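Input record, target 12 of the design panel.
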């Protein structure tokens, strides 16, 4: 069983919508929380604030999901629980 060192509450900021406005707003709100958390001090949230509008092949939700995967990898490697 993993012994988590920290907990960061951001899941309430996730959106189920896939339009650019909703995804951009959600990712900016997540970045605000991560930037205020000492446990994420070395995590770069710049791209969280620059979600592209995308095209027919790669939408804003795809880009956001890749960034969230990197966030989870960072959190797991530092034993940070994402709630």
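The sequence produced for target 12 reads:
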């Amino acid at each position: 069983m993993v012994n988590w060192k920290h907990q960061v509450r951001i899941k309430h900021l996730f959106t189920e919508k896939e339009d650019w406005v909703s995804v951009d707003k959600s990712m900016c709100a997540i970045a605000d929380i991560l930037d205020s958390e000492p446990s994420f001090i070395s995590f770069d949230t710049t791209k969280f604030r620059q979600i592209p509008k995308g095209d027919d092949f790669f939408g804003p939700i795809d880009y956001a999901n890749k960034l969230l995967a990197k966030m989870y990898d960072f959190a797991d490697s530092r034993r940070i629980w994402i709630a």
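Residues 6-82 form one domain.
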